Amino acid sequence: MTSAIETKNLSISYGKNLIIHELDLKIPKGEITVFIGANGCGKSTLLRSIARLLKPTSGTVILEGKAIAKLSTKEVAKQMAILPQSPSAPEGLTVLQLVKQGRYPHQTWLRQWSEEDEKKVNNALKATRLEELKEKPVDALSGGQRQRAWIAMTLAQDTDILLLDEPTTYLDLTHQIEILDLLFELNEKEKRTVVMVLHDLNLACRYAHHIVAIKNQKVFAQGKPEHVINRSLVKAVFDMDCEVTPDPLFGTPLCIPYGKGRCILKEVVISHG
Amino acid sequence: MLLKRTSYKWIGLFVTFLLMIGFMCASVIFGYADTTWRTAIDSFTHYNGSNEHVIIQKVRIPRALIAAAVGASLAIAGVLMQTLTKNPLASPGIFGINAGAGFAVVVAMTIFSVHNMQSFNILAFLGAAFAVISVYIMGSFGREGLTPMKLTLAGAAISAMFASFTQGLLVLDEALLDQVLFWLAGSVAGRNLETLISVIPYMTIAWLGSIFISGKMNIFAMGEDVAKGLGLNTGFIKIAIGILVILLAGSSVAVAGPIGFVGIIVPHLARAIVGMDHRWVIPMAGVLGAILLLAADIAARYIVMPSEVPVGVMTAAIGTPFFIYIARRGFNAR
Amino acid sequence: MSKYKNLRLFNGKMSLLIDRKAAFIYTTLAIIAFVVFVISTGLGEMKINPLTVVKVLLGLGPEMETLVITSFRLPRIIVALTVGISLAIAGAILQGLVRNPLASPEVLGISGGAAVAVVGFMSIFSDQNHSLTVSIAWLPLAAFIGASVMGVLVYFLSWKNGVPPIRLVLIGIGISALMQAFTTFLMVTGPIYQASQANIWITGSVYGSNWTNVAILVPGAVILIILAILATRQLNVQELGDDVATGLGDNVQKHRFLLLMLSTALIGISVAFAGTIGFVGLMAPHMARRLVGSSFEALIPTSAFIGGILVMLADLIGRTAFSPLEVPAGVFTAGIGAPYFIYLLFKTRNS
């Protein structure tokens, strides 16, 4: 399995606080990788550093074999697209105008709307099912539609790698599934590498081919969710006691926390998973 | 917070109050014609019509009293505005209130040829009120409603607008410009005691009012929703703060012209000394504000002796580096 | 899609997407601007009908009218138009950089810097008789230098690992207040005649414009406007936020600096020849956004023409409505600003 992105000895700090310490990671090509961890463990920071939005204190990020620090930001943009947390569009900007921006790294001041640009934008709108809505202002859309518009922009950027920082936070469950299904499809059909930060462990297990748990400024564990996620990991990373059982629809690990709540079982059934 | 225990805070407040009295005395004594403490006391007990006594009674003492009153009012107005708008760099100047009151006063002098003290004040209040409402409304346009950024920008726009109108009036009348120019720079010099006496009722009401709602302001500062959840009538508080700010800033402008930066700096200093509790911050800010303006006024007498720098320029010169420092340090602009 | 027109030339080496509706709007505005130009040239103490004005512009007009128009009116109105366009574009750029439609040139203290330079110039270069020892032709240069220095200063004071918009705005406002204090100080310590002159300049007026002014202003403005148009893509991408813009491959900090300097230069030359005419930089882009949206391809031409129309109208009112008094245009741009915002308030009161 070749890696799309690699980090070597990566350390990142905010002022005096060390967030990530000498972290080595290989992100597999053509798969969906999800970072999980407790609040504030540094998973967003790690993603942003990989996306070159943050300069690491030491260590390197390697993109397709080349050190990212040595590449121009435009070159990076042709290979990797990032959707940050809670992006905001100026008032009145239409979906089409937003998606068009995705072509920025491929354009010059003379060539602002080539046939290639037009094709990619149309494909992006089709993939995200936004063709009917392309003239609507982005701020007039529902949460799920708006997020699809931003994803369409990153699709128009036409990169092999897609990074998303908490793309489903603040969305209700329907829209969360809508977005994750879309990303899953894109990965299946077009073999794009997807790397995202998710805070919902169960959704992460369902959609990720490769899961990376961050704790104590390092990678605590990584691998296929069904190989990695178990009671002791969840206890170690999230400090939570839970039952891990196969999801009844997908078979992937489903984490059910212990605690309070109405227990209406006649007997408590425990499986050894 | 420098003074953590309540007993320390009481002592701190008391000491600062004494310091203020000290500065008031210094203001009476120092200047182009230096005088002595003895002479000052004599001017009360054995007034003999000499030059020195006249200066003390008619010039220095009013000036010291005005500086103290205006400094205190502007500082308290700053605290109120910073809490209301959740913007640590808010002040009557930044939000166009000084400009609005200033414009109203210039209009009073030109168009209405008003020289009646009371009408002067009422007009200053109206100008301040108009500015407050305009900024509030303008800052509410658009999607996210009222944010610190939008309030700041709206304040700048309204401030510029009133400044334009004021300049326009002054262009039409050169003689008026002469009259008004020094006043527009903001100064506590050359004012008479009557002016101060006419606004003191409003200032006093506002000072007492601010202390009265200081407890409620602590709750308000936790955020609109949290405060409502705790049973605070946020609408009432917002209107009350608005009225108090109008009284404080309007009176100050009516007496001394537009003086900026006091309202920005002093709340920060007060908070650094006594913490975030408004019941302490407001009185401390009042006293510190008086000291700041008194000190600036004394300095203003020495820098280009024998002439004087208007105190508004001094506060701008002192205040700007401080302002930049806070802006660079960053803050949680919610 | 007939809403758009693909413009592709030279076998695809040059391509552009044109929004038809927006193009219609700014072309209409251009025509309105021309009409205002012609009518404004015709109005004044001597009323000249529009048809004659057009004839004069084509070089075919009667002698008397040609003299009045070319000596007095044309330079002034050309300056008004150019300044309006420049300030509007500068405002649009600033609003894009700060990502807030309430941003304006006044907020960054640039006009304040120019004002200090002008008043300083008048105080330094005068003798006991209060007349200028140096030719007044140097005044615009002083203003431009003042504006530029202020723009750079505000930028660098805001710089700490980058320039977040809110810090830029706050420091601009702080510096602006300081500049205002200095200006008033200089005006107070100088003779009243000087203060009066300075005050007129500060309020913003195109009175006394001559062909020399035009010869310097117009080419300079044209170059800067072309640069602004070339920067359209960078402006569009900056509006999406630093993270998204970096992700799309934009060199955010470098472009922010250059765009800020471009905006400063536009404001600087406007202020040099017309004083600090306020609100155009705030209103014109704001109105333009409501007409054509936030994309800079349409925003720049639309704001430009609205700005030009605003300043020409303000100047027209200022010199005719209070005849024989001349009220500086700056008073009326502020005067139009107030009702505009009240109107906006009215429209958005339900949201």
**DSSP helix fraction of chain A:** 25-40%
Give the mean pLDDT of chain A. Answer: 90
Count of helical stretches of chain C: 14
Give, in order, the helices and strands of chain C: EEHHHHHHHHHHHHHH
- Which spans of chain A of ≥5 residues are poorly predicted at pLDDT below 50? none
Q: What's the alpha carbon Rg of chain A, rounded to whole Å?
A: 20 Å
Strand content of chain C: under 5%
Question: Your description of this structure?
Answer:
The complex is a heterotrimer of chains A (273), B (334) and C (351). With 273 residues, chain A is of the alpha/beta class. Chain A is built from nine helices and twelve strands. In chain A, the strands form three sheets. Chain A has a six-stranded mixed beta sheet with strand order 6-7-8-3-9-10, sandwiched between helices. With 334 residues, chain B is an all-alpha fold. Chain C has helices at residues 20-42, 50-57, 63-98, 110-124, 139-158, 165-189, 192-203, 211-230, 232-238, 242-247, 252-274, 280-292, 296-320, 329-347, and strands at 4-9, 14-19. A two-stranded antiparallel ribbon of chain C has the order 1-2. In chain C, helix 1 packs across helix 2. The chains are: A alpha/beta (273), B mainly alpha (334), C mainly alpha (351). Chains in contact: A-C, B-C. At the A-C interface, helix 2, strand 6, helix 3 and helix 4 of A face strand 1, strand 2, helix 9 and helix 10 of C.
Key terms:
heterotrimer; B: 334 residues; mainly alpha; 13 helices; 77% helix; globular; C: 351 residues; two-stranded antiparallel ribbon; 14 helices; 2 strands
Walk me through the topology.
The complex is a heterotrimer of chains A (273), B (334) and C (351).
Chain A: E1 3-14, E2 17-28, E3 32-37, H1 43-50, E4 58-63, E5 66-67, H2 73-79, E6 80-83, H3 95-101, H4 115-127, H5 143-156, E7 161-165, H6 173-190, E8 193-197, H7 201-207, E9 210-215, E10 218-223, H8 225-228, H9 231-238, E11 242-246, E12 253-257
Parallel strand pairs in A: 3-8, 3-9, 6-7, 7-8
Antiparallel strand pairs in A: 1-2, 1-4, 4-5, 9-10, 11-12
Chain B: H1 6-29, H2 37-45, H3 51-85, H4 97-110, H5 117-139, H6 148-172, H7 174-185, H8 193-220, H9 224-229, H10 234-256, H11 262-274, H12 278-303, H13 311-329
Helix pairs in contact in B: 1-3, 1-12, 2-3, 3-8, 3-10, 3-11, 3-12, 4-5, 4-6, 4-10, 5-6, 5-10, 8-10, 8-12, 11-12
Chain C: E1 4-9, E2 14-19, H1 20-42, H2 50-57, H3 63-98, H4 110-124, H5 139-158, H6 165-189, H7 192-203, H8 211-230, H9 232-238, H10 242-247, H11 252-274, H12 280-292, H13 296-320, H14 329-347
Antiparallel strand pairs in C: 1-2
